[in-house]
Amino acid sequence: MFKLSFSSLIAAALLATALLTACGSESEPAEAEVVSAYDLFMDNLRAECGNAYAGSLTLEPEGDTMLDGRERLLVHFRECEEDVIRVPFHIEKLDGEWDRSRTWIFTRTEEGIDLRHDHRKPDGSDDSFTMYGGPTHGAADPNQMEFISHERTEETGIYRGWRIIIEPGVRYVYGTHRGGEWSWRVDFDLTQAVDAPPAPWGHE
Question: 193 and 51 in contact (C-beta within 8 Å)?
Answer without folding.
Answer: yes
